Automatic annotation (TrEMBL):
Coiled coil: none annotated. The keyword Cytoplasm applies. This is Serine/threonine-protein phosphatase 2A regulatory subunit B'' subunit gamma. It comes from the Eukaryota. Its main location: cytoplasm. It comes from Salarias fasciatus. Signal peptide: none annotated. It is found in: Cytoplasm; Nucleus. GO terms for biological process: B cell homeostasis; cortical cytoskeleton organization; microtubule cytoskeleton organization; positive regulation of B cell differentiation; regulation of dephosphorylation; T cell homeostasis. GO terms for cellular component: centrosome; cytoplasm; nucleus; spindle.
Length: 456
């Protein structure tokens, strides 16, 4: 402005404010409003822009304030608009009939020769199918998708079955995303614990493998299933829908739609009826006084009853308890940690208990504190205690931490030996298994050789 022979905006503002006015002519609010208006005007002009700039009208609004709790009408309007949006997205997905037509088109355009038992299709035929399949399929028939599925075929073709499975998987993911979003009350892409409970409760009747569950057990089943999701979540009170879709847990849960699921698959699936009944049955067996809660003494009989007293003390110090006793939900976290010690979430749970002073690392003192309890148990069982120095050196050799005197959680995860370290420090049976690993491997090999001879 000074270069153009005009006063600087700050000088104009100061002059305006310095102009004397009659007492009580304007209120403080009016003065503040005038100052703000002048500042906005001069600042906009100084930046070379204008509130009347036509480009402002073409920029879409990207932030919408959420309605307050007392704005009932706005909340209802938002819920309805979300429901309409999700319904529209659902209609954009391929239904069963359209998927069947797509399969027929792909099969009709297969390109010889057959690769083993797999029907193949080249890029030209692939584009022809895309033109005939309809607008809903357009996003699947791109060069990028084709390149993803292209492997080592000498003719540059892709497997029809692999492509169709890719389409099915995408459709399923979108269907599931929409289904989960219907339970997202806040509409922020998260599910609270109660939201996920409602989702699973309404899902139970659609899973044939859960037909035998009594309705009185539904609440315990839902709790068992939900804890699996939240145990691995980085958040405590909510879980991202995106994270639910990314993990394998939802696949395991929906695997229960298979009416012919094998017994082995059911036993290894946390969400199956046998698995849920097993976990709840263990809880009831541990609850000797039948008060619905577990004391430290009752929990000490968990598994092989060889968890150290020191570790159990830490469990009851750090985990949520009620008058010094553990409820079923807290017990589920405990079981998930001990049954999945290789998983990062389980290691995080155990590490927090081992890190008594909350320093973010384990040092020699921490290791010695927990291993002393293992030594005491060995004495009680008439075994010669192992030297801590030897065990300490073995642990540091296994983990190879970045700091030679401190072991962090990330060190345990990176080493892929975190489960072994945890077992050595908290469970006599786990330590005994590690200490006798060579003997156990030799016995397994001998058993295998004997079985081969028997077969011969």
């Amino acid at each position: 402005y000074a270069d153009k022979g005009q006063p600087h905006w700050s000088d104009v503002l100061k002059k305006r404010l310095a102009t004397p006015t009659k007492v009580n002519e304007k209120s403080e609010e009016e003065k503040k409003a005038e100052v703000t208006e002048l500042f906005s005007k001069f600042y906009t002009e100084w930046r070379g822009g204008s509130s009347n700039d036509p480009s402002y009208k073409t920029i879409p609004r990207f932030y919408f304030k959420l309605p307050a709790e007392d704005e009932v009408l706005l909340q209802k309007l938002r819920e309805e608009s979300r429901a309409v949006f999700l319904q529209r997205k659902s209609r954009e997905l391929l239904d069963n009939e359209e998927l069947q037509n797509l399969w027929f088109l792909l099969d009709k355009h297969q390109v010889p020769p057959v690769n083993g038992e797999e029907a193949m299709i080249n890029y030209e035929a692939y584009l022809q199918v895309g033109e005939k399949a309809g607008p809903k399929c357009k996003k699947f028939f791109t060069a990028k998708v084709y390149a993803k599925l292209l492997h080592n075929d000498p003719y540059g073709r892709i497997s029809i079955m692999q492509f169709f499975n890719y389409v099915m998987r995408k459709v399923w993911l979108h269907q599931t995303r929409i289904g989960l979003s219907l339970y997202d009350v806040a509409g922020q892409g998260y599910l609270r614990e109660s939201d996920l409970e409602n989702y699973i409760l309404e899902l139970i009747p659609t899973l044939p493998q859960l037909d035998g569950l009594e309705k009185s057990f539904y609440s315990f089943y839902v709790c068992t299933a939900v804890r699996k999701f939240f145990f691995s979540s980085t958040l405590f009170e909510q879980i991202k829908i995106q994270d639910i879709l990314a993990c394998s847990f939802l696949d395991d849960l929906l695997e229960l739609r298979d009416e012919e699921l094998s017994k082995e698959s059911q036993e290894s699936n946390w969400f199956s009826a046998p698995s849920a009944l097993r976990v709840y049955g263990q809880y009831l067996n541990l609850d000797k006084d039948h008060n619905g809660m577990l004391s430290k003494e009752e929990l000490s009989r968990y598994g092989t009853a060889t968890l150290t007293s020191v570790f159990l003390d830490r469990v009851f110090q750090e985990c949520l308890t009620y008058d010094g006793e553990m409820d079923y939900k807290t017990y589920l976290d405990f079981v998930l940690a001990l049954e999945n010690r290789k998983e990062p979430a389980a290691l995080q749970y155990i590490f927090k208990l081992l890190d008594m002073e909350n320093r973010g690392y384990l040092n020699v003192f921490s290791l010695n504190y927990f291993f002393r309890a293992i030594q005491e148990q060995m004495k009680l069982h008439g075994q010669e205690p192992v030297s801590f120095q030897d065990v300490k050196d073995e642990i540091f050799d296994m983990v190879k931490p970045r700091d030679p005197y401190k072991i962090t959680l990330q060190d345990l995860v990176n080493s892929c030996q975190g489960d072994t370290v945890a077992s050595i420090l908290i469970d006599l049976n786990g330590f005994w298994t590690y200490e006798n690993r060579e003997v156990l491997v030799a016995n397994d090999n001998d058993a295998g050789n004997t079985a081969d001879m028997d077969d011969t």
